[in-house]
Design a protein that fits this description.
Layout lengths: L5 E5 L5 E3 L4 E3 L1 H9 L4 E5 L7 H14 L7 H10 L5 H30 L3 H29 L9
Parallel strand pairs: 1-4
Antiparallel strand pairs: 1-2, 2-3
Helix pairs in contact: 1-2
């Protein structure tokens, strides 16, 4: 079942009203909606204009000011240079795909780390030894098969 689109109205006084819970919410609560994977749009209460990107950028901006920023001045400068460039239309989808690949790799790494956490050092060592032994057997089998297929040298004196 598709997730229902949650509408958040933004009023001229900059307050955000969540129509699903009939209550005003903060930017931090909008951030939590993002973290929870909620599908939502922020709309201007009067005109109905979509303000979602603007609000998301505001959240990013506030988090960049606190703690350790993710976006360096160099990265931001490079992004700004793409505005108006002939490749501007390719930049967004490229960044989205790159971030998705990063997220997929991060999820895979976490899964591998979690599977390792359940193992003792001895079980990890045994597993590594078994893999190395299998690789060694495969390599030996390859040498033996290659040697068996090599025709005997007729010029050899015996």
């Amino acid at each position: 079942m598709a997730q229902k689109l949650r509408i958040i109205k933004k009023y001229p006084n900059r307050r955000l009203y969540d129509t699903e819970i009939s209550s005003y919410i903060t930017l931090e609560e909008v951030r939590q909606l993002v973290l929870d994977g909620e599908t939502f749009e922020v709309r201007d209460a009067k005109s109905g204009e979509d303000l979602t990107r603007s609000v998301l950028l505001q959240i990013i901006s506030e988090h960049e000011e606190k703690g350790q920023p993710m976006l360096s001045p160099q990265l931001l400068s490079q992004i700004i240079r793409f505005y108006g460039d002939s490749l501007q239309g390719f930049m967004g989808p490229y960044l989205e795909r790159s971030l998705q690949v990063f997220l997929d790799q991060q999820q895979q790494f976490r899964a591998q780390l979690n599977s390792l956490m359940g193992q003792t050092p001895w079980s990890m060592l045994n597993e590594l030894t078994e893999r190395n032994l299998d690789a060694w057997k495969t390599m030996q089998r390859g040498f033996l098969d290659a040697a068996a297929q090599t025709p005997p040298n007729k010029n050899r004196k015996g």
